[in-house]
Amino acid sequence: MPSTAAAPTVSSLTADQYGINIDVTVMQCIVSLQLDDGDKTIRVSEHLVGDTTGAIILKTTQDVQAGSRLQIHNGYTQVIDGYLRLIADTIEPSSEAPVQVNTSNNLSLNKLVRRN
């Protein structure tokens, strides 16, 4: 029986979520670093991505282009230095057209505080 649950939106993301499958539009590359790990070099980049509900910083090792629409499979959220990030290892181009990203609701700008 197919699931009737709505696809997640950027604004619905919270800390420590796993198994996230979401479509986002890439706004811009924020930073890209090459890290040497012994015999291999790994490129890690952060991009501002989002949908019509909000924006978030995506951390990935895959190359993505500004203006493209992506399907993220099995991603997860993580709080890094108090700020929410979307982490994705499996990214594919989406057949959908890019959408206008709601940058006024940038989840990565909100400082999060963990309570014990």
From TrEMBL:
InterPro entries: NA-bd_OB-fold
Domain of life per record: Eukaryota
Protein name: Uncharacterized protein
